[in-house]
Design a protein that fits this description.
It is built from four helices and two strands. It is mainly alpha-helical. Helix 2 packs parallel to helix 4. It binds zinc ion (ZN).
């Protein structure tokens, strides 16, 4: 008679205690214990694998979180740098515009001053004063001959134009003084030489 090994199924004799193929003891308790040990080892290995997988997943999540954080920080830093640059550019533009406006304002002011001066020179009041002053100069520097010779005619023209002024006193004084100088000049020129 023969039987089969309870482990590997090889054919062995009925009274064999050990299998000739796999060498294991033909004891159901032993088989049970081995199977249990194998099941435990398998369960342990599976648990370890699960733990390792979970650990790996956690690490991957942490890495991803780190990457996300770094990305967010980089984006924020870039946005801040961009905002700073834009702010500086805006400031530069505003400063340039301010300088331009200031220059234009000064230019306008200068032109207005020039126009005002021009208007003043064209005013009868100014001409009246000039006519009077030319008359005074001609009288004061009568003995030089050249000053009255140069000033008396323009002085008369200024004074005549100055008559349109609201206050005519200067214009009238200019006409009197310049005519006086003119008459004195004519008198001396017409006087018979001694
Ligand atoms: Zn066997």
């Amino acid at each position: 008679m023969s039987k089969n090994c309870i482990f590997c199924g090889a054919e062995i004799d009925d009274d064999d205690l050990f299998c000739g193929e796999c060498g294991k003891k033909q004891d159901p308790e032993e088989k049970k214990r081995i199977e249990q040990a194998e099941a435990e080892a398998k369960a342990k290995a599976e648990a370890e694998m699960r733990l390792k997988r979970e650990q790996a997943e956690r690490e991957a999540q942490q890495r991803q979180a780190q990457i996300d954080k770094e990305t967010e920080m980089r984006i924020r830093a870039e946005a801040e740098a961009k905002a700073k640059l834009e702010f500086e550019e805006r400031q530069k533009r505003e400063e340039a515009e301010r300088i331009r406006n200031e220059a234009e304002r000064k230019k306008r002011e200068k032109e207005e001053q020039k126009l005002a001066k021009q208007r003043e020179k064209n005013s009868p009041e100014y001409k009246a004063v000039m006519g009077r002053n030319f008359g005074i100069c001609s009288i004061l520097f009568l003995c030089t001959y050249i000053v009255p010779a140069v000033l008396v005619i323009p002085g008369l023209i200024y004074s005549a134009n100055g008559l349109k002024a609201e206050k005519k006193a200067n214009a009238i004084a200019g006409i009197i003084l310049n005519l006086l100088v003119l008459f004195i000049a004519i008198y001396f020129m017409a006087r018979p030489k001694a």
